[in-house]
């Protein structure tokens, strides 16, 4: 049974594309067949995060306008053979695709692939409406920061109005030290406001930056905490019951440094 | 091989340099993927300039951008009907 | 502020305009115009308003009717006997601590249906009603609840709430956790302090002595 998942957030810059790339690789690492679809037409980025930017021949618009069959536009991942990217156009804009086209495309893809993950653009306009049209499930990505949470709440409302009621939450870019010192919203606050099931708590991790530089999603890095968090999210998507990580609290030296105002 | 040796000796490429290189290539692509309108203007401007020097067959003229994995070229194929004798150079 | 000459009340048959007996007509007209132009989107097109008109002359009735008409509101003049009896206003000062549920029920008798919302109201949503509103869920930041009557939230209120939106100063707002961005009752506005901690008890906001006050209540 195939599943179409949309990764959305409302707010920009919280980690939708990063999450899409990592979940895609994570599922492929477990042998699932996955298609990732970039719908941020005009501002495409998913290709960069996967390191596939040099291999794009055709894009989503070529497919929806009937110029090529989708198989020709799919870019297979360098390393994970069951992972494919359907990139979007960098030239057109979000008015170039409509929801009905995406639904038709996903109906085709469902026949061949286990997971279809759609990277949604920021905002609540046409781009958003198009991206969510075919989704069975929505993952809302947010950060522990008030404007991100506020936008996430709005998006959850919009999803509900579009009859997309299967909504899960991933909280990204958590800084455990700041949560501990009370300078960052904690999970209780966020869950209380958003009231949807949380399937991911991903810490802020410098390795995400280096991973993006290289075009290799951080989920492949053993030593990365963010990578581990993403591996756990993938596990939960596959039905495993994985408890949330206990983030390392402040070590002695960090505390000392803070006491001296360093 | 050299890359592997460099890794062993701890001189692996800094990821920011990898990022910069990738970005440079990607931007060439992005900027080269210009819209049809711009292509039209480009075509008209080329016709205007070349027509100062020679008569060309506008119908059979072809202008396109060709790109491979790391470079872009503007390719123009313009059939010439006649060279203009009084090629007055309008500058 | 608003012990004005014009009051709007919700009644069984709809929206009613109550005019002060002794008031000057031009004061009445000015106040109505001000309310209509205030931009609070209560008077949506097609709203029917009853005006108890025994104190107005034909000419004055016509002027009011035109004024309402320009804002898309239909006015119907009714004689005093036809109009629904309005609930007597509770004297603000002597109000004993009323148990939340029964207070809301009292309002119910004179006010049409209470609007009930059985879910959390999310950012960007607006719930409005001419009568009272009951929310079984939270009111999230960015959400707006506007009621002609009172508002009861079985959950945490973090949004903007406006009770007594037509000028009913006896309206109140109750929540399990009252942490709104802004509370308005009738014409008064109160802003919550910058650092709000989640209160342990349910609280009610109401107008006493011309100010919005918040007191803990038992549910």
Account of the protein in words:
The complex is a heterotrimer of chains A (262), B (91) and C (219). With 262 residues, chain A is of the alpha/beta class. Chain A has a single domain, classed as 3-Layer(aba) Sandwich (Rossmann fold), CATH 3.40.50. The longest helix of chain A has 16 residues, at 146-161. In chain A, a hairpin with a 6-residue loop joins strand 3 and strand 4 (83-86). Chain A has an 8-stranded mixed beta sheet with strand order 3-4-2-5-1-6-7-8, with helices on both faces. Chain A is globular and about 65 Å long. Chain A is built from 12 helices and 8 strands. Helix content of chain B is 45%, strand content 21%. Chain B has helices at residues 2-8, 15-32, 36-51; strands spanning 54-56, 62-67, 72-77, 80-83. Chain B has a two-stranded antiparallel ribbon with strand order 1-4. Chain B has a two-stranded antiparallel ribbon with strand order 2-3. In chain B, a hairpin with a 4-residue loop joins strand 2 (62-67) and strand 3. Chain B is elongated and about 65 Å long. The N and C termini of chain B lie far apart (55 Å). Chain C has 2 domains: 6-78, Transcription Regulator spoIIAA (2-Layer Sandwich); 100-216, Pectate Lyase C-like, CATH 2.160.20. Chain C has helices at 25-37, 58-70, 100-110; strands spanning 6-11, 14-19, 48-52, 74-78, 115-117, 126-129, 133-135, 144-147, 151-157, 160-163, 173-178, 182-185, 188-191, 203-208, 211-216. In chain C, the strands form 3 sheets. A 6-stranded mixed beta sheet of chain C has the order 5-7-9-11-14-15, with no helix packed on it. Chain C has a 5-stranded mixed beta sheet with strand order 6-8-10-12-13, with no helix packed on it. The longest helix of chain C is centred in the first third of the chain and has 13 residues, at 25-37.
Which terms summarize this structure?
heterotrimer, A: 262 residues, alpha/beta, Rossmann fold, 8-stranded mixed β-sheet, 8 strands, globular, C: 219 residues, Transcription Regulator spoIIAA, Pectate Lyase C-like, 6-stranded mixed β-sheet
Distance between the termini of chain A: 54 Å
- Radius of gyration of chain B (CA) equals 22 Å
**Number of domain modules of chain A:** 1
What is the helical fraction of chain A, as a range of percent? 40-55%
Order of helices and strands of chain B: HHHEEEE
The count of β-strands of chain A is 8
Oligomer: heterotrimer
- In CATH, what is the class of chain A? Alpha Beta
* Strand composition percent of chain B: 15-25%
Number of strands of chain B: 4
Instruction: Give unreliable regions of chain B as ranges.
Output: none
Identify the CATH architecture of chain A. 3-Layer(aba) Sandwich
| Average predicted confidence as pLDDT of chain B | 75
Summed up, the domain count of chain B is 2
Question: Shape of chain A, please?
Answer: globular
Number of helices of chain A: 12
């Amino acid at each position: 049974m195939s599943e179409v998942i949309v990764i959305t957030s409302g707010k920009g810059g919280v980690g939708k594309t990063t999450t899409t790339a990592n979940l895609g690789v994570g599922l492929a690492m477990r042998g699932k067949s996955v298609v990732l679809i970039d719908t941020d037409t005009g501002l495409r980025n998913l290709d960069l995060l996967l390191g596939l930017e040099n291999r794009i021949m055709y894009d989503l618009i070529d497919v929806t306008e009937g110029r090529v069959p989708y198989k020709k536009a799919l870019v297979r991942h360098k390393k994970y053979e069951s992972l494919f990217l359907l990139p979007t156009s960098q030239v057109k804009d979000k008015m170039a695709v409509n929801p009905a086209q995406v639904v038709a495309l996903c109906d085709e893809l469902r026949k061949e692939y286990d997971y279809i993950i759609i990277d949604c653009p920021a905002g609540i306009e046409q781009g958003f409406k198009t991206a969510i049209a075919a989704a069975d499930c929505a993952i809302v990505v947010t950060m522990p920061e008030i404007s991100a949470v506020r936008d996430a709440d709005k998006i959850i409302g919009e999803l509900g109005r579009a009859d997309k009621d299967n909504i899960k939450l991933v909280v990204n870019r958590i800084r455990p030290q700041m949560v501990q010192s009370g300078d960052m919203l904690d999970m209780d606050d966020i869950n209380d406001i958003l009231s949807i099931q949380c399937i991911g708590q991903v810490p802020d991790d410098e390795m995400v930056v280096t991973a993006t530089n290289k075009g290799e999603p951080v989920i492949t890095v053993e030593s990365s905490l963010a990578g581990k968090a993403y591996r756990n999210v993938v596990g939960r998507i596959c039905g495993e019951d994985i408890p949330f990580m206990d983030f390392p609290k402040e070590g002695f030296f960090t505390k000392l440094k803070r006491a001296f105002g360093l | 091989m050299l890359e592997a040796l460099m890794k062993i000796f701890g001189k692996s490429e800094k990821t920011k340099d990898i990022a910069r290189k990738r970005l440079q290539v990607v931007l060439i692509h992005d900027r080269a993927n210009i819209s049809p309108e711009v292509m039209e203007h480009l075509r008209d401007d080329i016709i205007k300039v070349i027509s100062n020097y020679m008569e060309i067959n506008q119908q059979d003229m072809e202008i396109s951008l060709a790109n491979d994995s790391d470079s872009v070229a503007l390719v123009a194929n313009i059939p010439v009907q006649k060279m203009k004798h009084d090629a007055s150079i309008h500058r | 502020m608003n012990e004005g000459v014009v009051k709007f009340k919700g009644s069984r048959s709809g929206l009613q305009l109550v005019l002060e007996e002794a008031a000057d007509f031009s004061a009445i007209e000015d106040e109505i115009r001000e309310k209509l132009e205030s931009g609070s989107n209560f008077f949506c097109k097609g709203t029917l308003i009853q005006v108890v008109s025994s104190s107005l002359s034909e000419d004055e009735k016509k002027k009011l009717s035109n004024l309402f008409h320009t804002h898309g509101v239909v006015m119907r003049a009714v004689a005093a006997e036809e109009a629904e009896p309005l609930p007597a206003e509770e004297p603000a000062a002597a109000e004993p601590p009323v148990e939340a549920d029964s207070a809301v029920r009292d309002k119910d008798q004179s006010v049409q249906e209470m609007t009930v919302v059985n879910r959390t109201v999310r950012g960007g949503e607006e719930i409005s009603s001419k009568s009272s509103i009951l929310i079984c869920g939270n009111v999230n930041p960015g959400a707006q609840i506007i009621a002609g009557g009172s508002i009861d939230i079985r959950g945490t209120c973090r949004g903007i709430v406006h009770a007594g939106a037509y000028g009913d100063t006896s309206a109140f707002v109750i929540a399990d956790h009252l942490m709104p961005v802004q509370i308005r009752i009738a014409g008064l506005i109160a802003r919550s302090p910058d650092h709000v901690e989640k209160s342990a008890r349910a609280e009610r906001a109401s107008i006493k002595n011309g100010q919005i006050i918040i007191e803990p209540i038992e549910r």
